[in-house]
Amino acid sequence: MAKITKTECTSNLKNVIDALYVLNGKWKLPIVLSLVDAPKRFNEIMREVEGISPKILAQELKHLEQNELVVRNVYDTTPVSIVYEASLYSETLKEVLRTLSEWGAGHRKKITGK
Amino acid sequence: MAKITKTECTSNLKNVIDALYVLNGKWKLPIVLSLVDAPKRFNEIMREVEGISPKILAQELKHLEQNELVVRNVYDTTPVSIVYEASLYSETLKEVLRTLSEWGAGHRKKITGK
DNA sequence: GATAGTAGTTACCCAAAGGAAAGTAGTTAC
DNA sequence: GTAACTACTTTCCTTTGGGTAACTACTATC
Fold first, then answer.
1. Do A101 and B15 form a contact (C-beta atoms < 8 A)?
2. Residue B13 lies in a domain
3. Would the pLDDT of B111 be above 70?
């Protein structure tokens, strides 16, 4: 890593902590990945993201909506259908997800597979 | 995001989960960032990473050592000095830290600062 | 009228993460 | 001998994350 100043390092740190605050937890990135694939309804997400409970899914969707990563669309059909989709903004996560995925794959090889 | 297959998506997901498993928690990346800056002793890290308790620091250093991100050097002086440093391998995190930092900075602006 | 599906909410519980404070064992300085 | 510094460990406690199961309110189908 190129030489950096103390101030740069501290602000890096703060940025990383902020990013992790938003993306932290077992389910947030899996949900986003599922919705990036295609918009889905509540029970469809439940079926795709295996193991998640309705309580946690509702909670995480709210968190992701607040952070503008997911959009909740309500359609006035009978009964109403509610469709969640990854926001345009969520595409800014693309690079983060890519580097994390690459690192995770490489690291698994290093620690277990060799 | 370019069109991807279901299989690619699932393996992405697994990789990301694996990466987060290693990097998860409040302190791991802050500690790595601190050591990337310069090798340090236990109490030096304590002072730089504000708010961390000795219990947590000892625990996280062990975890990071197991994952080969941090090296623990023992020097046979009197008294022994123990110096922790970021491993060469930890440089593979560079890209991850950079994208996370950039995203965190941009996201903070979006959600709070405007 | 019973069953199933929609999108959740509620209450209760457990386990892991993390914080606070004190202790330990050794060395060094005063 | 007392205080301070090293690198931790131990104990206790609280908070948070997450799981289970039941329940709600509505609609559609048999």
1. yes
2. no
3. yes
Q: Do B111 and A68 touch (CB under 8 A)?
A: yes
CB-strand contact A47/C, under 7 Å? no
Distances (CA, A) of B38 to A32, A34, A101, B64: 36, 39, 27, 16
Cβ atoms of A57 and A31 closer than 8 Å: yes
- Report if residue B85 sits inside a domain: yes
Residue predicted with more confidence, B72 or B111: B72
Mutation target among A48, A101, A111 for the B interface, most CBs of B within 10 A: A101
CATH of the domain at B37: 1.10.10.10
User: Which pLDDT does position B15 carry in this prediction?
Assistant: 87
Domain that holds residue B56: 26-113
With a CB cutoff of 8 Å and minimum separation 6, the contacts of B18 are A104, A105, A107, A108
Is the per-residue pLDDT at B1 higher than 90? no
A1:B105 CB<8 A: no
Pair of tokens at residue A58: 């509702």
Q: What is the pLDDT of residue B91?
A: 93
What pLDDT digit, counting tens, does each position of A85-108 carry? 999 999 999 899 899 999 999 998
A44 within a domain of the structure (yes/no): yes
Assess if residue A43 is contained within a domain.
yes
